[in-house]
Amino acid sequence: MMEQEHRVVPKPAKPDVITYGDHEIITPDTAKLRKLVRPAVPGEEDPVVRAEHALEEMSHEFADFMRIECERLDAARQRLRKTGMVKDTQRELFLAAHDIKGDAGTFGFPEVAPAADSLCRLIEHTPDSKKIPLTLVDQHVDAVRAIVREHSRHDILQVASALTERLRQVTDEFLAAVNRHRPEYLESISSRAVTAGEGF
Q1: 81 within a domain of the structure (yes/no)
Q2: How many domains would you assign to the chain?
Q3: Cα distance from N-terminal residue to C-terminal residue, the chain
């Protein structure tokens, strides 16, 4: 009877982790990935270029995708009007805004991301969500929808930037008021707000 060969499978290398005060930088071991990469065969299309072509071919559908996302956000807002800020409705509104924030760049609507992000911050950092004024939710949802609707304007970047800046100011003032009893938390979300606003 032949003895079975026992192969020792090496454990995957742990990623390098550098910890800072408010965040960590994780650098995974890429040795396995490097083994999977091969040089391009002459005449073979670059995979990045191929992916860009695929996105370009779908780009005519992106406006429809973003319109559908806006309808989903508005539907969540309408449910909120009926039920109040209960857990399920809050989650639905947050996820709709979060998806718009994440998809905006891919779909060619980067100027809408900060407004969606501001709505996410409002929901995430309000200790008692029932205290969020419906008018403030309306302002965010209407801003997102207006930016998407007016996307083809030549000055959309300036218009969206001005609108979003005002939304952020009002949101930050509200968050400062409802978090005044926990100054350390307020300081941490204020510093994150500055970072999140960079690059728009």
Answers
A1: yes
A2: 1
A3: 69
